[in-house]
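FW: tagging you since you asked about this chain on Friday. Here's the raw sequence from the shared folder, copied in full. Didn't touch anything.
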Amino acid sequence: MDLGISGCWALVCGSSKGLGRGCAQALAAEGVNLVLNARGAEALESTVRALREAHPDIEVRGAPGDISDSSVRERALAVAPRIDILVTNAGGPPPGDFRDWTRDDWLQALDANMLTPIELIKACVDAMAERGFGRVVNITSGAVKAPIDILGLSNGARSGLTGFVAGLARQPRLAGRNVTINNLLPGAFETERLHKTLAAAAIKSGRSPDEIAVERQAGIPAGRFGSPEEFGAFCALLCSRHAGYYTGQNLLLDGGAYPGVN
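HL: got it, structure written out here
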């Protein structure tokens, strides 16, 4: 299927590795010009080079830095002639007990996982509406559907973004002008972050990371972890010209791990 987005410009955050890179790769394969952002300049430049080599017919530009910094956001947005597709993405805050978190911990989590995506959305959607096309995809977490007790910072910040998007996406001046805003909620995917989590759990339990991985996969009906490539494919589909009637939704990608009906 031709997704109809060749020639568009996309800003993809957190795209030097993991799920963000998977999204960038899928969009590049559809002929989308890219602005890639990530905090690690070296890893980002490596991804930029790889995508340029794989897709010489598109523009791939890097915008390194912490996207929660307003000056980095301004630079990233200015790198492209326009933003037709916005993919927001930020690493989750650390786990822990809410009794140990300070006000600064909460503000940091809110800034990275709620306020920064909102600022990026604010910078893009009105121009998208004027042009009659726009797609915003926020990479959040499966914990929005099934909160995890030790991830309270993430649960709170990402749920706040979810509530905000639910209202904004339904504004007629956006939805009625072919601008959609949706959230992708990943479960367990084969990423560097997952392997760090498995390693930490292994140390805590005295078992090997492989044993922890097998145990976790046994709790997923699909029997495996997801791949960044298949996550990126779903992202590209949400960004397509064919997805204009799908907005304000939370799409959970977890191999069937969540047992609820909605």
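FW: Residues 103-131 form the longest helix (29 residues).
HL: agreed, and The beta strands are 9-12, 33-36, 60-62, 85-88, 134-139, 179-186, 250-253.
FW: great, closing this out.
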